[in-house]
Amino acid sequence: MSLASAASDLSDLRDYAFEWALVDVETSGLVPRRDRVLSVAVVTLGADGEQTGEFSTLLNPGCDPGPVHVHGLTAERLRGAPAFEQVAGRIGALLEGRVLVAHNAQFDYDFLAHEFTRARLRLPVARRLCTLALNRRVDPPTDDLKLGTLAAHYGVPQLKAHDALDDTRVLAGVLRASLREAAQLGLPLPLVACPPRQDAQFAPKPPKTPCAFRNPGRLTAGGPLVQGMKVAVTGETRTARADLVLRGVAAGLNMMGSVSRHTSALVTNEPAANSAKARRAHAEGVPVIDESAFLRLLGDVRPGTAHEGTAAPVPPPGAAPAPEPATALPAVPTPRAPEPEPEQGEAAGAQSGRKRTAKPRGPLTGRRVLVLGGTHPEAVAARTRVVELGGAAAINLSAGVTDVVVLDGGRTDRRLPRITALLLPTHDAAWLAAPVVTEAPGAAGGRAAAHVLPRGGVVDLPLPKGRGAQHRWTVTASWAQQTACEIDVVAFVLDEDGQVSFDEDFVFYGAPENPGGTVRLLSDGPTEQTVSVELATLPPSARKVVVAAAIDGSPAFGEVGALHIVSGPGTSAAALAQATLDAATTERTMLLAEIYRRGQSWRLRAVGQGYDHGLGALARGYGVEVDD
Predict the structure, then answer these.
(1) Rounded CA separation 89/21 (Å)
(2) 8 A C-beta contact, residue 525 and residue 192
(3) Would you state the pLDDT for residue 510?
(4) Residue 601, SS3?
(5) Exposed e or buried b per residue across 544-553, where buried means at least 16 C-beta atoms within 10 angstroms of its C-beta
(6) CA-to-CA distance for 285 and 217, rounded, in angstroms?
(7) Confidence band (pLDDT; 50, 70, 90) for 164?
(8) Could you give the C-alpha distances from 279 to 240, 391, 479, 500, 585, in angstroms and in order?
(9) What is the enclosing helix (H) or strand (E) of 108?
């Protein structure tokens, strides 16, 4: 792409005219509630794309600066720099009334929100735009979506990576070029409304100590407590509730905040109480003991069996979502993507720096096909056929779309005039019976396409032996940009019983991070959300992370259409796998994917199992205590 693509004049893009505040922060770590901002830069642009202001400064965090080898900011360089609260007013003035823009915007936004909170000030940001999410919509022909890669693609010079001011100037060029690409494709901007992050719901609770032992089952009449038993407490107690929990944890018990069919015992002095825990214990037949009995049994807790990291994945509540048996998992569903070879420097034994790509599986391998029109069953059948032929089924128009199939009614789709202007090949339904492809797919970019997984398809996650970037794995879900209803992406961290160890291992919009910080929800736009998982720091008790989607309200997925998922080692890295998932007609929740342990490694499965019930019922099935 020519340098003209990054030209500053955006006055002709009236539908994309906003006042912008481009931000980049360098930090002492990756956890906003714990780590601090070391440097910050803000560049403001007018609606015409011209720069209107600029500010940058180093900051004295009052703590260790963290990975100096990444950002180069030593304690000596930061000594004498102002504290954040000394410059917060100036930063706030630049942000006020503008859309905050950053590459991986939730990261920068969260750090600024926590710094403003520490300074007892309001972060004056009502909306933000992530250029990473915007380019996922544009889908340029690049190997990944890192800022440096996009800068090279759009012809924006980058002088010094991980320098806040230079990164922000580069970001300005990437934003201008991305807006032009979005305008050419007619894409809506993935603007995210920003709630005040000072609310208590955004303050994760202190991490619970993970239980080191497997659940041995229920307490038997007259029998002892065994390490790993799941024990819940309800009602008034003579001993302070916190003390009971601490004593149970010290004895090796798994002290739970809710009751499920896997609970070993419920401790209560009021067995006839009408609490949610007591009602659930009665319904599930969970043994009930009083406080005195519990304290007596704590004096002789028997040894348990430690987690080993070799348990087979467990099924979700209700019907099994995938055709593959969950208990034995003897074989991987076909077609299975080959395991890519690690790049040089990422793992021992790598023979080359290039990844192995999948062999062609059909005439549409490497192509991305958008289906327009048709009834829901007809569109589902067409997208399924695309995958059978080796292609990827698109749900939105992007620069990566290579073909368009127009079913009955598709000629009225508002995107068709733009598709025609882009000279994209259009076909009728009969083309899918024996597609003829004349031009080479991906000729414009030549990047390797992510493996296309069918429903139930599995791929091994390529993890290096030492800790590295690939220990962070993401699953991004997106849906049609014209969707009117709200869809929430959620995640559950499950143990060997297929249950959360505590309610905070249910990650959703109201609690976007579990206490250990191992699983996070990233809101990338109104029709795109990402779950990020730190595989290396998940406790041994965590057997699986389930990613699901739920519709807020009465609509069903039959009205929404397909959901598309991509998964890779980080938000800006090249995706390893992708899948397009279609529910039937009445489902309101859908299991999208699961990342689970397989021996000493991890696997990703595309699930695509829908349920008619809502998110509350799904959460209860996984052991989350949900208010009625």
Answers:
(1) 15
(2) yes
(3) 83
(4) strand
(5) bbbbbbbbee
(6) 13
(7) confident
(8) 23, 50, 38, 19, 33
(9) helix 105-118
Considering 310-324, 400-414, 430-444, 508-522, the range whose residues carry the highest mean pLDDT is 400-414
pLDDT tens digits for range 280-295: 899 999 999 999 999 9
Print burial letters for 437-472: b (CB count within 10 Å at least 16), e (below 16).
Answer: beeebbeeeeebbbbbbbbbbbbbbbbbeeeeebbb
Matching residue, tokens 């397909």: 562
What's the token pair of residue 133? 């999410």
- Give CB contacts under 8 A, 24+ apart, made by 437-445: 437/363, 437/364, 437/367, 437/403, 441/365, 441/366, 441/367, 441/402, 442/141, 442/366, 442/402, 444/141, 445/140, 445/141, 445/142
Name residues whose C-beta falls within 8 Å of residue 433's C-beta, 6 or more positions apart in sequence. none
The identity of residue 99, as a single letter, is: V
Percentage of the residues of the chain whose pLDDT score is greater than 90? 61
Which residues, in sequence order, are bridge partners of residue 577? 451, 567
Measuring CA to CA, how many Å separate 511 from each of 25, 59, 505, 614? 24, 29, 9, 18
The Cβ of residue 236 has, within 10 Å, a number of other Cβ atoms equal to 10
Would you state the structure tokens that stand for residue 620, as one six-digit string?
Answer: 């209860």
pLDDT at 375 over 70: yes
Select from 96, 95, 13 the least CA-distant residue to 50: 13
Distance between CA 479 and CA 393 in Å, rounded?
12
Sheet holding 601-611, edge to edge: 458-460, 601-611, 589-598, 544-552, 486-494, 506-507
Structure-token pair, residue 537: 């720091």
Helices (H) and strands (E) in the chain, counts: 14, 26
* DSSP state letter for 271: T
